[in-house]
């Protein structure tokens, strides 16, 4: 309640229990930012030569194109708070229209929504993960890309893809990693 009434700067919780058990009361008590419909979780992996943010790693099982667009925009704002210019990749098994599956179409629709709402944001997709992390591949496969470098914000099509990617990078000792921070909520919250 203190955070909701602007009497404190942030909220930490979760030293015991699951992310989900802490998220529900945080969402109910603290609430969402005005005009925001979707909460999402974002993790960071700090690798030797690159820092990558991954979303949505814990909350939305199979978000719609509209939710993915909102999540991407919220996550990009959060990345900026770290002092980093976001370069957003909407990931898929499909690259730049190579497949017509429901998931690939959803990611292309999300891209259209993002471009309408944030035309200056460096965002591209739908694309494979290797292309997202390697500007050389992007330039070869899609030379007209809006990304000026390797992506640093990976937006996944569903919860499984995001959580698996994060945990594989974490287990592979790719670098240090951060807790899943909720994006879209009122004020600063961290759930450990």
UniProtKB/TrEMBL annotation:
SUPFAM superfamilies: Isocitrate/Isopropylmalate dehydrogenase-like
Keywords recorded for this protein, A-Z: Acyltransferase, Plasmid, Transferase
Chain ranges of the Phosphate acetyl/butaryl transferase domain: 1-170
Signal peptide per UniProt: none
GO function terms (MF aspect): acyltransferase activity
Protein name, UniProt field: Phosphate acetyl/butaryl transferase domain-containing protein
Lineage: Bacteria, Pseudomonadati, Pseudomonadota, Alphaproteobacteria, Hyphomicrobiales
């Amino acid at each position: 309640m203190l955070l909701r009434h602007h009497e404190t700067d942030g909220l930490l919780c979760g030293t015991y229990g699951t992310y989900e058990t802490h998220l529900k009361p945080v969402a109910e008590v603290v609430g969402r930012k005005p005009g925001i419909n979707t909460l999402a979780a974002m993790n960071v992996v700090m690798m030797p030569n690159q820092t990558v943010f991954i979303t949505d790693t814990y909350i939305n099982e199979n978000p719609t194109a509209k939710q993915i667009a909102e999540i991407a925009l919220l996550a990009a704002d959060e990345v900026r708070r770290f002092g980093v210019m976001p370069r957003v990749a909407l990931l898929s098994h499909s690259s730049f229209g190579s497949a017509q599956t429901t998931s690939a179409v959803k990611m292309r629709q999300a891209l259209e929504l993002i471009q309408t709402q944030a035309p200056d944001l460096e965002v591209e997709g739908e694309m494979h993960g290797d292309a997202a992390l390697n500007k050389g591949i992007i330039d070869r496969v899609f030379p007209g890309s809006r990304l000026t470098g390797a992506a640093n914000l990976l937006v996944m099509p569903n919860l499984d893809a995001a959580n698996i990617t994060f945990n594989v990078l974490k287990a592979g000792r790719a670098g240090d990693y951060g807790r899943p921070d909720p994006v879209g909520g009122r004020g600063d919250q961290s759930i450990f």
